[in-house]
Design the sequence.
């Protein structure tokens, strides 16, 4: 039998992911709503069915179906300044249907505040409104370069507490062997995810970076499942093969410039933002965002796990974030950077001007910022985006020519 | 002969230079993209300089309307063109503040006059020429009168709304409350200056600072901006055509590279 391509696997997995959730609900099994970078290992080990509202909101955004959910949430009194994933999801909790995909209503909420503090209020409100229990894993923001030992201890205690609550919720005991197994799988999946995305360090990159955005939905939802490991392993093999043949990202165009993309994708205009880059020969080879799922830790170690979840880059200081983007820029040999000033996600946006200054002063790399939103289509302007991208190309070209003259 | 065309949102500009780079003439028509403004600006320029269209060797178009203009050999963004134009006229420039009809931008130049970084306003008319148009309407005067009014005083009524629409109603109630026209006019200028300054400071502001774009014709505005930035602000002689001049210089360079 011919091997399935990773693209096919990806589509199958996502389809099954949403179908399984509906099936669980229909059969009376509980459904959990979880934030995207939460310790899903605990839920998976408890054999719970999980869906991810951020993933789902992104899918709705990509279909340009977000405005009616946003309006609904705003009419309930939620401010237009709140993250639009939260507004879409809270609107969805009322409307309960989108052609993009449907998720069953939750029986349990699982929130990890390592991504942002908006998530805390969002989940608390859902819990109150829908009258379902909430398990909160609070991860403090670190003003330090790495997560503090006190924070690790604090998060670990919460993991243990969460296990107790899950046991109570399911009426079953945690199977620690199974948990160890899920931790192993999760690490393996994350490792293949990293290996695959790191292949873009090659010049030309064997992958078009926008694929990262496509594959990201699955690193969120099947990280703890065997099929996740297989998917990313398969993707890695495909890319490795392209790399060995010296192939670039596209069969019909050349990779002229390599850039880093910072921020969440502009889902309603994914195709538009992609095509304008490609038209200019720009390949997005790396991004600061998808790397958040490279969650690696020593197996069978809850403290290690606590540390991994507590030290994703959204939770660490500006100094760490600066070093990380400069290192990334070096490793991936980028010519420029494009910052999505995403109206929704202040936690990512506030760093961008400083990132620009760092890239310029450390490496002489030009960059530009464009306005958009992860789901709200009204924030983005195609003409403005195109002008900024073109100006970036002009800056990159100028520097290339100056280099060549040296 | 090399032609630079700048099609903005509310005006069209053309500049013609010769093989030595000397400016033969320039033209500004106060209607922008989507109109016959660009044709007018070109026709008038050709007449004025007595140059036949056929003698133009290369043309570069820039500005908001550049994508839809068919008759150019190349299109280049207004960011690069402004930098090019300013660097040619005023080599000491390190920061450009350009305020046009519906956008504002700041460009940081390196010692070679190349673009190091730039920043543009968000999707909003605050801090652009459009804000003055709205204010002039409220005060029932034209743009020149608004600028002259503002120049008569240093006292001003602060306008706190960022939103142009809210600022309009804020000003109406200020007037109703007895504020003088001059103080309101000055307030409008300070408001735009503050807004633009907030934008400019996101990049590194280094002297000399040069102001371009239609709004630079307004001396009161240049003064307010200088106060906010706490730096002298240089206004070039024809601030509106700097982008088109940059485009013309690019046209010359592109042509020479081809040879
Ligand atoms: S997009 Fe940003 S603000 Fe919204 S949930 Fe994610 S991390 Fe939080």
Sequence:
């Amino acid at each position: 039998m011919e091997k399935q391509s990773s693209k096919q696997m990806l589509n199958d997995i996502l389809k099954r992911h949403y179908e399984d959730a509906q099936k669980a609900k229909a059969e009376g099994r509980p459904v959990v709503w979880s934030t995207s970078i939460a310790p899903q290992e605990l839920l998976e080990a408890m054999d719970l069915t999980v869906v991810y509202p951020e993933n789902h909101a992104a899918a709705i955004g990509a279909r340009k179906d977000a405005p009616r959910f946003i309006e609904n949430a705003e009419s309930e009194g939620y401010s237009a300044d709140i993250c639009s994933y939260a507004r879409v999801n809270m609107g969805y909790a009322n409307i309960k249907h989108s052609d993009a995909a449907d998720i069953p209503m939750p029986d349990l909420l699982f929130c990890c505040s390592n991504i942002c503090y908006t998530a805390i209020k969002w989940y608390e409100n859902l819990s109150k409104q829908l009258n379902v229990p909430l398990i909160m894993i609070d991860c403090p923001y670190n003003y330090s370069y790495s997560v503090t030992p006190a924070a690790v201890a604090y998060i670990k205690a919460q993991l243990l507490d969460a296990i107790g609550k899950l046991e109570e919720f399911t009426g079953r005991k945690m199977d620690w062997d199974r948990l160890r197994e899920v931790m192993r799988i999760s690490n393996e999946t994350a490792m293949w995810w990293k290996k695959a995305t790191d292949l873009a360090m090659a010049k030309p990159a064997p992958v078009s970076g926008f694929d990262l955005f496509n594959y990201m939905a699955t690193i969120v939802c099947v990280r703890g499942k065997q099929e996740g490991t297989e998917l990313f392993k398969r993707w890695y093999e495909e890319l490795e093969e392209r790399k060995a043949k010296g192939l670039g990202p596209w069969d019909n165009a050349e990779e002229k410039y390599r850039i880093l993309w910072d921020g969440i994708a502009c889902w309603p205009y994914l195709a538009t933002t992609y095509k304008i880059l490609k038209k200019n020969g720009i390949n997005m080879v790396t991004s600061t965002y998808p790397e958040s799922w490279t969650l690696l830790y020593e197996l069978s170690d809850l403290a290690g796990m606590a540390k991994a979840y507590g030290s994703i880059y959204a939770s660490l200081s500006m100094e760490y974030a600066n070093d990380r983007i400069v290192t990334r820029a070096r490793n991936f040999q980028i010519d420029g950077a494009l910052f999505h000033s995403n109206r929704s996600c202040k936690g990512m946006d506030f760093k961008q001007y400083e990132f620009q200054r760092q890239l310029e002063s450390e490496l002489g790399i030009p960059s530009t910022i464009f306005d958009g939103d992860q789901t709200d289509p009204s924030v983005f302007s195609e003409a403005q985006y195109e002008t900024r991208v073109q100006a970036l190309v002009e800056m990159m070209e100028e520097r290339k020519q100056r280099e060549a003259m040296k | 002969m090399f032609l630079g065309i700048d099609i903005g949102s509310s005006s069209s500009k053309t500049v013609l230079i010769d093989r030595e780079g000397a400016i033969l003439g320039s033209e500004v028509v106060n209607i922008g993209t989507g109109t016959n403004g660009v044709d007018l600006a070109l026709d008038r320029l050709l007449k004025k300089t007595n140059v036949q269209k056929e003698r133009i060797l290369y043309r570069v178009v820039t500005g908001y309307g550049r994508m839809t203009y068919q008759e150019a050999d190349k299109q280049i963004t207004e960011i690069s063109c402004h930098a090019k134009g300013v660097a040619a006229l005023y080599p000491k420039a390190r920061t450009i503040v350009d305020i046009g009809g519906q956008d504002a931008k700041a460009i940081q130049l390196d010692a070679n006059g190349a673009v190091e970084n730039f920043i543009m306003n968000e999707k909003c008319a605050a801090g652009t020429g459009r804000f003055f148009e709205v204010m002039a309407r409220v005060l029932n005067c034209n743009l020149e009168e608004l600028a002259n009014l503002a120049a008569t005083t240093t006292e001003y009524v602060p306008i706190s709304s960022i939103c142009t629409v809210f600022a309009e109603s804020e000003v109406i109630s200020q007037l109703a409350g007895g504020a003088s026209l001059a103080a309101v006019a000055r307030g409008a200028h300070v408001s735009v200056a503050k807004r633009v300054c907030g934008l400019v400071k996101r990049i590194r502001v280094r002297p000399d600072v040069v102001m371009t774009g239609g709004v630079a014709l307004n001396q009161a505005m240049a003064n307010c901006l200088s106060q906010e930035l706490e730096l002298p602000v240089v206004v070039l002689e024809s601030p509106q055509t700097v982008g088109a001049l940059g485009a013309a210089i690019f046209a010359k360079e592109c042509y020479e590279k081809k040879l």
